[in-house]
Design goal:
alpha/beta; globular; 6-stranded parallel beta sheet
């Protein structure tokens, strides 16, 4: 049995702060986390001195469409594996591959590929913890980069069919609550799958009803929805008023400016915020032309847009977004890390394996230097970078 001890570093604890501790890893799992006052006596272990470094849990991205020239909707398992390996190399330990608004037969194929990819994942890939189904149940007026040709009203039978084909992998489904059939959809689906409000024109009252019926999430808050106004608080105000609701935030530096990111963290609190990348296949690639949901995407200066200038996902990964929060948006370090680790793990129901550095969890870790820059990645107890 292999045993590694990471000692001397400041470890991000389950209390969301850094303390000097030693992390003991055996066969891909964290078996013990020792305080600095506890004596480490394991003569057969591989001791790694990380004095001056910081250790955080592997990140969890619950909203990403692609990276490194591949998209989860490409229709083959190879795309899933390629993206999952790239994400792992960037310190992202777990992912929810996200679909686009596409025909049902295309989505069925994507779901089949997802199930196959989950069953054949390798140890150097970010773990696929579920599917985020973004579209086709969204608003034409706020469809953003979603293809309006394939939009549908919420359809429980269609969702059930896709869920069955996926092997019950869909953990998050996005809808516009003002659409016909939305309330019945939420009522029936919310007990078994997290429902997120997205790409919507919903006012405060409509959104509030959706949350009371069981929706608990908001897709990329501020984007593809009405703004928060004094006499029209809309979806954002309704989400604030419902304490169980978790809002996503794309912090790539383009979707939301730093002042609004800071205001949103203050408004909702560090215990509710979830960082996402919303990355498209342009992430990790040079400037050029790519695609998203069958539509051409142009990426320059790490900004991805449709031909008309509409933002089309991001060209950043979640580690990039975390760095943006820490270095350029003045979000407190521990709050930013929580929003990229613990909070998404809790929302997706995977805290038993991910999200914190504790005994029994997967040994998926990121090691930072004193500037909070990534130096190395440990996945399943094995150093990748």
């Amino acid at each position: 049995m292999s045993k590694t001890i990471l000692c001397g570093a400041k470890v991000y604890t389950k209390d969301f702060k850094f303390e000097e501790k030693s992390v003991i890893i055996e066969d891909g799992k964290i078996t013990r986390v020792l305080d600095k006052t506890e004596k480490v006596t394991f003569p057969d272990a591989d001791m790694v001195d990380l004095t001056g470094k910081f250790i955080i849990p592997g990140l969890i991205d619950i909203h990403l469409h692609g990276a490194i020239g591949a998209d989860f909707c490409d229709g083959n398992e190879e795309a899933f594996h390629k993206i999952a390996k790239y994400e792992a190399s960037q310190g992202i330990a777990a992912i929810c591959p996200t679909t686009m608004t596409l025909p049902y037969d295309t989505l069925e194929n994507v779901m089949k590929c997802a199930q196959g990819a989950v069953q054949s994942q390798s140890r150097d890939e970010a773990t696929i913890i579920g599917i985020n189904m973004e579209g086709p149940f969204v608003s034409k007026e706020k469809c953003g980069a979603q293809n309006p040709e394939y939009l549908k009203n919420p359809d429980i039978e269609a969702f059930n069919r896709l869920q069955s084909v996926s092997g019950d992998l869909i953990r998050l489904v996005d809808i516009a609550p003002e659409l016909e059939g939305a309330e019945d959809f939420i009522r029936q689906v919310a007990p078994r799958c997290r429902v997120s409000l997205a790409h919507t024109t919903a006012d405060y009252e409509t959104a509030s009803r959706a949350f009371k019926l069981g929706a608990k999430h908001v897709t990329h808050l501020h984007n593809a929805m009405p703004p928060l106004l004094s006499r029209a608080p809309g979806l954002i105000g309704a989400a604030f008023d419902n304490s169980e609701v978790t809002p996503e935030l794309i912090c790539d530096g383009y979707h939301i400016l730093p002042a609004m990111v800071r205001a949103t963290f203050k408004l909702f609190g560090a215990d509710r915020m979830i960082l996402i990348s919303d990355s498209c296949m342009a992430a990790g690639m040079p400037a050029g032309e790519y695609s998203l949901g069958g539509q051409p995407v142009f990426m320059h200066d790490r900004k991805a847009t449709l031909a008309d200038g509409t933002l089309a996902g991001s060209a950043s990964n979640l580690m990039d977004c975390l760095q943006q929060c820490i270095k350029h948006m003045d979000i407190p370090v521990c709050e930013a890390i929580r929003a990229a680790t613990y909070n998404p793990a809790k929302a997706m129901g995977v805290l038993d394996e991910f999200g914190t550095i504790e005994s029994g969890k997967k040994a998926d870790l990121v090691i930072f230097n004193e500037e909070y820059e990534m130096e190395s990645v440990v996945l399943n107890g094995i150093k990748l970078v």
